[in-house]
């Protein structure tokens, strides 16, 4: 019989609404090789790579009467050209036009009658570039049976069209009677299963909640101790609709390292990390953005962020890393000094990390099926699973490899994540460091955040302020 979705994976299907699509995405910009790169090349590449990931040719099948969680079944009519699509911008296409394209296609729900992923080849970018835009459902990307489609098609070496013998043959789809029979057999093996499903999965939810509480207990205690109140009121939290805006921001990794190095030489030689500098940059950007909106900003104003933090070994830049922690941090947007914001954030993060109050990779694996290639998906899962009353915004920061990656022979120039919006969140902030750059993807509600491009410019200005700050090392 086919694999059954876990309760957590199934929840991403059940909780999906028109305003809260439960898929993650990426925008990858490439420089084509001399011989070019076209749609047929991408189709061949994807067809070759998914031969190693059978889940990408499976779809979700509901069990009659909802007697058990849905199952994965082979798509007997699988058509790779349905999932790999082609589009183009009017030449020479600008980054702003690419952002608008992403904002249009990312909110559209994936077809539940087919495998839950899509890839778009976007041609016509200025300077001869092209983009690959991906969408993968969180129910699909569990980090065990399937990783994100972007990871599937990228490689550290240019692909020389090595042929792969595809021996995949779809397994016959089970009938309704077979699905019901298997659900009943499972119920006999686990007598509580039927009762759990009849009660709407209450027991499963409690079990998952228990695992979350067990893993995140220390972090929750930190939040309770530091701020025994819900997250502060913020324009970052609003009722959202179906339409989106998207903004890409590219920055230089060396700038973050310069700030960190200067702080390390000062009298306050905190254990400041590059991630702390990133959070300080975001904090300064949010401060400036709030001021442009005419919001009241005073010394005690904060924005609470939920930050799933991944840490890679600096000696091994070929891996995304295997250490992950999830922290809550009150970003000090009311603090006017850029260097002071950095020190406050570094202290708050270190307090959680050293105090054993951050969540380790082992605990996170138990919550969300952790795997290094799907860290952004992990961040989205944590953000979706936890009460938004605890935080204002989710920030996912995934350190990536610091050497070039390729789709076929095309070199990837930059990669911007597209994080989903949970209910009540006006914007999500994802960023990926790659090959000397740090690339932000801001996914925002179209009505609640008409000025997301202003926030994007504020990120650039905030980083420049930290780099130029003369008191960073005091």
From TrEMBL:
Protein name as catalogued: Diacylglycerol O-acyltransferase
Keywords recorded for this protein, A-Z: Acyltransferase, Glycerol metabolism, Lipid biosynthesis, Lipid metabolism, Transferase
E.C. designation(s): 2.3.1.20
O-acyltransferase WSD1 C-terminal domain boundaries: 321-466
Reaction(s) catalysed by this chain's protein: an acyl-CoA + a 1,2-diacyl-sn-glycerol = a triacyl-sn-glycerol + CoA
All residue ranges annotated as the O-acyltransferase WSD1-like N-terminal domain in the record: 5-278
One Pfam family this sequence matches: WS_DGAT_C
Pathway entry: Lipid metabolism; Glycerolipid metabolism; triacylglycerol biosynthesis
Organism: Oryzihumus leptocrescens
Domain of life: Bacteria
GO terms of molecular function: diacylglycerol O-acyltransferase activity
UniProt GO BP: biological process involved in interaction with host; glycerol metabolic process; response to hypoxia; response to nitric oxide; triglyceride biosynthetic process
Homology family: Belongs to the long-chain O-acyltransferase family.
One cellular component (GO) term of this entry: plasma membrane
Entry-linked InterPro entries: Acyl_transf_WS/DGAT, O-acyltransferase_WSD1-like, O-acyltransferase_WSD1_C, O-acyltransferase_WSD1_N
């Amino acid at each position: 019989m086919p694999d059954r979705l876990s309760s957590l994976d199934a929840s991403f299907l059940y909780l999906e609404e028109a305003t809260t699509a439960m898929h993650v995405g990426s925008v990858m910009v490439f420089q084509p090789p001399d011989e070019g790169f076209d749609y047929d090349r991408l189709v061949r590449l994807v067809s070759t790579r998914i031969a190693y990931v059978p889940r990408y040719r499976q779809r979700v099948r509901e069990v009659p009467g909802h007697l058990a969680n849905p199952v994965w079944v082979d798509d007997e009519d699988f058509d790779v050209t349905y999932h790999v699509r082609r589009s183009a911008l009017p030449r020479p296409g600008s980054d702003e036009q690419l952002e608008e394209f992403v904002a249009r296609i990312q909110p559209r729900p994936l077809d539940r009658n087919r495998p839950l992923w899509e890839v778009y080849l976007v041609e016509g970018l200025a300077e001869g570039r092209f983009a690959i835009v991906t969408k993968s459902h969180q129910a699909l990307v569990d980090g065990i049976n399937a990783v994100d489609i972007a990871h599937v098609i990228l490689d550290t070496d240019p692909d020389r069209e090595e042929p792969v013998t595809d021996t995949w043959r779809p397994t016959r789809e089970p009938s309704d009677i077979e699905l019901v029979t298997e659900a009943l057999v499972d119920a006999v093996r686990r007598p509580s299963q039927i009762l759990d499903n009849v009660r709407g999965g209450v027991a499963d939810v409690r079990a998952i909640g228990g695992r979350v509480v067990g893993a995140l207990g220390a972090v929750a205690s930190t939040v309770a101790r530091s701020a025994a109140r819900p997250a502060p009121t913020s324009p970052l939290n609003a009722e959202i609709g179906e339409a989106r805006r998207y903004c890409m921001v590219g920055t230089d990794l060396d700038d973050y390292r310069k700030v960190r190095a200067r702080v390390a030489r000062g009298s306050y030689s905190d254990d400041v990390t590059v991630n702390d500098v990133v959070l300080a940059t975001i904090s300064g950007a949010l401060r400036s953005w709030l001021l442009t909106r005419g919001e009241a900003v005073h010394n005690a104003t904060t924005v609470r962020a939920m930050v799933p933090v991944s840490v890679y070994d600096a000696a091994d830049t070929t891996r995304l890393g295997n250490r992950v922690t999830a922290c809550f941090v009150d970003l000090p947007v009311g603090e006017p000094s850029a260097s002071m914001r950095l020190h406050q954030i570094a202290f708050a993060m270190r307090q959680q990390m050293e105090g054993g109050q951050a969540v380790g990779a082992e605990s996170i694996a138990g919550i969300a099926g952790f795997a290094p290639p799907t860290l952004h998906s992990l961040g989205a899962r944590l953000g979706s699973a936890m009460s938004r009353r605890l935080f204002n915004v989710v920030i996912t920061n995934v350190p990536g490899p610091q050497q070039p990656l390729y789709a076929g022979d095309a070199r990837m120039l930059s990669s911007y994540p597209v994080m989903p919006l949970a209910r009540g969140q006006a914007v999500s902030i994802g960023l990926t460091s790659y090959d000397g750059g740090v690339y932000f993807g801001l996914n925002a509600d179209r009505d609640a955040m008409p000025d997301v491009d202003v926030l994007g410019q504020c990120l650039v200005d905030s980083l420049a302020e930290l780099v130029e700050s003369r008191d960073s090392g005091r």
